[in-house]
Write a structure and sequence with these properties.
Layout (H helix, E strand, L loop, with lengths): L5 E9 L5 H9 L17 E6 L3 E7 L9 H14 L4 E7 L6 H10 L6 E6 L6 H10 L8 E4 L8 H10 L18 H16 L9 E12 L2 E10 L2 H8 L4 H18 L2 E10 L7 H6 L4
Parallel strand pairs: 1-3, 1-4, 4-5, 5-6, 8-9
Antiparallel strand pairs: 2-3, 7-8
Helix pairs in contact: 6-8
Length: 297
């Protein structure tokens, strides 16, 4: 163990769409977790590792806590709750622009008995005027007794370094759990599937994004020097959703593929040939077999 070095785990929790994944990416200084304006974008627990000269913080970005309507939703909420009991710090994120509401109260009640230090991050303050931020901060203590409260903007980086310092101060002395430079414990295929799903979210509307799962079927290097070949299958619940993702004469799937390829090339620092397919898997969000096959178990 390095003398004076601290390390530990911090869970990022909150309602859907409050900016948890954007905040994780801001902490890491690069993109790991996908983001969109659609609620329930994050489905799995994403591990992101912050490396500092005197500290290592393992962040757990969790799905938004919500009232589940299917087995996938139940899985997502259980993932979030499991993270609460195994960390050194809980980072509770609320949306200042949307206001503190019943969903935030529900989460506050859930974590109150955990006994772990809780820092409240009031996010999206860049969308409010200064007096509105102050009004929101005045209401924040109603949620509970917090170790500290920070007004922040994950989008612009406002007050994020100060928030990160407060989290590090709660970490115990310990070893490096991950080698320097290692960003996540997730395999590349997982991150690539998420980047493809992110582009589906960006290019579709309404119910379609929630019914999408992406599975990487092949990942091959070396067939052509400097090029990675990736074959991925996008699963949807209804035939009508398949048509929406494909678009007229395949126009939308081409847009999705082009945008996803750019993100994947940035991740791999390599040229990528991306082959996308779309299949209908009826009712997969309530089917244990599909959920396990797609990695939600």
């Amino acid at each position: 163990m390095e003398n004076g070095f601290v390390s530990g785990f911090a869970a990022i929790i909150g309602r859907p769409n409050v900016g948890k994944s954007t905040l994780l990416n801001r902490f890491l200084g690069r993109k790991l977790a996908i983001v969109s304006d659609k609620p329930q974008t994050t489905r799995n627990r994403i591990v992101g590792v912050y490396h500092g000269p005197e500290a290592q913080v393992v962040f757990l970005d969790t799905p938004g806590v919500h009232k589940p309507r299917h087995r996938l939703g139940e899985y997502m909420v259980s993932v979030a709750k499991d993270a609460w009991s195994e960390v050194d710090c809980i980072l509770f994120v609320v949306d200042a622009a949307a206001g503190i509401g019943g969903g935030d109260q529900f989460i506050a009640e859930q974590i109150r008995e955990v006994g772990t230090p809780i820092i409240l991050a009031v996010n999206k303050c860049d969308l409010l005027k200064p007096h509105q931020v102050m009004e929101t901060l005045a209401k924040a203590p109603e949620l509970g007794d917090f170790h500290e409260i920070f007004p922040i903007s994950a989008e612009t980086g406002y007050n994020v370094p100060e928030l990160l310092s407060a989290i590090i101060n709660l970490m115990p002395q310990g070893p490096r759990y991950f080698p320097e430079g290692m960003l996540t414990d997730r395999p590349e295929e997982f991150v690539i599937a998420e980047l493809i799903r992110e582009q589906v979210l960006h290019h579709t509307r309404e119910e379609v994004p929630h019914s999408v799962a992406v599975v990487i079927e092949s990942f091959e290097e070396g067939m052509t020097e400097g090029v990675v070949y990736i074959r991925a299958r996008i699963h949807v619940e209804r035939k009508s959703h398949r048509g929406i993702i494909l678009g007229q004469k395949g126009s939308r799937i081409k847009e999705i593929g082009t945008a996803a390829r750019k993100e994947i090339e940035a991740l791999l620092s390599s040229r990528v040939y991306l082959d996308l397919y779309v299949s209908t898997s009826e009712g997969w969000r309530n089917n244990p077999t599909f959920l396990q096959r797609f990695g939600y178990h």
